[in-house]
Amino acid sequence: MSETLALTVRNCNELLTSLCQLLALFVIFVGIMRALIIFLKDLLFKPQTTEAFQRSRLAMGYSFSLGLSFLVGASILKTMISSRWDDLARLILIIAVRTILNYLLTQTIASSDQKESLLLSNNNNNS
User: Fold this and answer.
1) Using CA atoms, how far apart are residues 102 and 70, in angstroms rounded to an integer?
2) Per-residue pLDDT tens digits for 89-125
3) Alpha-carbon separation of residue 2 from 9, 82, 84, 114 (angstroms)
4) Which residues contact 43 (CB under 8 A, 6 or more apart)?
5) Which residues contact 70 (CB under 8 A, 6 or more apart)?
6) CA–CA gap between residue 45 and residue 113 (Å, rounded)
7) Contact 103, 64 (CB under 8 A)
8) Measured between alpha carbons, how far is 31 from 117 in angstroms, rounded to an integer?
9) Dihedral sign for Cα atoms in the order 36, 37, 43, 49
10) Residue 80 neighbours by CB under 8 Å, 6+ apart
11) Cα separation of 29 and 70, whole Å?
12) Which residues contact 4 (CB under 8 A, 6 or more apart)?
């Protein structure tokens, strides 16, 4: 009975881990496509290419941040079943690196959002 339960838990864990990884891939792919569409649309129809670059970068940054969060969740799920110390140490390292990357991404996004809102308010005041 306990072997069947352990096998069921392991299978559910593998399924959830794979689902989180697939969601991360999907979110990152959609973000890249959105960023590319924003950049190409603005490049072709508007003369301000720096603004297009910044907007596409922000769209991609949001999706990378969400994708990294899904990957952290997948790493936690993958290590939950394992009881080896080297797996736990690897998990801690992976989470630390991904959390730092996520923090840096959100800082860049927040900084870009502030710059964009300042530019918009300056443009509205000049109009």
Assistant:
1) 11
2) 888 888 888 888 888 888 887 787 677 666 666 666 6
3) 10, 17, 21, 55
4) 49, 52
5) 20, 21, 23, 24, 27
6) 23
7) no
8) 22
9) negative
10) 13
11) 13
12) none
